[in-house]
Design brief:
The structure is a homodimer. Chain A has 9 helices and no strands. By secondary structure, chain A is mainly alpha-helical. At the A-B interface, helix 8 and helix 9 of A face helix 8 and helix 9 of B. Chains A, B: Pfam families: TetR_N.
């Protein structure tokens, strides 16, 4: 992409790339996160994403295969950090499960509510049901299973029948994902306060 | 719209109207509910809604002004029955608030999860932030305020500072709306069981 002696080679760029220090791929992900959550996924064209990231549509295809790949990666990015923590916490099986479950809830809420865009809102897109998003569904199921294992390891959780354990897992997981909706309407409260209160509420649901 | 002696007058209809016994307007709402939740709001054309309801696009405009009106009415329909119940329950101020809050939670979950389509998923559409949907936001805020009043009337709720009352209200409201997400992934469990378990969980969050 060199220019010779200040003269532009080839056609000028669609727009100036913002100087964010991000890689072109991360620039595209940031642009997609903004546009998908503010304009909507179906209403956003690949061209709009490329322009927002300061590149031509044709250049974009050097980095990603299209809109679906960007959505899949954004969705997975809301789960994988929590999943890594969940695996660590599951391995610390000498520590009380109550504290580990609390920590997972707190961190998960901070992650879901703390970013600049409400990516959790993308979970409900009808498009996300497609096989193309199997990777996201797999990591989300794995995270939910980690919640289930931690709940089962609590003092009250150990005595629950499977159907009751599944029910409490759904309620805790529903609470965590549901707080996305309410947090958006009231963003004056610090995320950390809300995350700790949600973790407390999750332990009360479990009965711990 | 009469036909004379079995001969069709004018052009044939786009499709046969299904014999559901619904009014044309309700037929359009049912078609919109299905298409918005399965294909997505932005991806659904008014023409597709009209065809699904068995009428021409031009006829549709006799009954509704367009896609936005259908979405606004569908959104409000997820709130207004719960709001009517909430007003009744608030008026019964001789009865313990715990039981009234439990009943509101149970009914609200049955309503959100019990319909044929996951209309709660439409809450997160970016389009819904527009002024056009102020009516929906107003009834939803009124419902949330009813939750707040019932929580404040419980024995533990009465002693809470305003910020703590707001926090518990957000957690209970978040739980109720969040169960939409998890219920969709596991629809084998009867809605009634899930609704009662959610109401129990809400009371535990409040500390009642």
């Amino acid at each position: 992409m060199g220019s010779t002696g200040g003269r532009r080679v080839g056609r000028p760029r669609a727009a100036q790339r913002p100087e964010t220090g991000l890689s072109p791929r991360d620039e595209l992900l940031a642009a997609a996160a903004e546009l998908f959550t503010t304009r909507g996924y179906a209403a956003t064209t690949t061209r709009a994403v490329a322009e927002r990231a300061g590149m031509r549509q044709a250049s974009m295809y050097h980095y990603v295969s299209g809109k679906e790949e960007l959505l899949a990666e954004l969705l997975e990015s809301t789960v994988t950090p929590s999943l890594a923590l969940a695996r660590d916490l599951l391995a610390q099986d000498a520590a009380p499960a109550e504290g580990r479950l609390w920590e997972l809830c707190r961190t998960d809420v901070e992650l879901l509510c703390g970013g600049p865009h409400n990516l959790g809102g993308l979970y409900l897109l009808p498009e996300v049901r497609a096989d193309r998003f199997a990777g996201f569904h797999a990591v989300r199921a794995e995270l939910k299973d980690a919640y289930r294992q931690l709940i089962a390891a609590t003092r009250t959780g150990g005595g629950l029948a499977k159907s009751e354990l599944d029910l409490r897992t759904d309620l805790v997981f529903g609470l965590i994902e549901g707080v996305i909706l309410v947090h958006r309407s009231d963003s004056e409260r610090p995320v950390a306060v809300f995350a700790e209160a949600t973790a407390d509420a999750a332990l009360r649901i479990v009965g711990a």
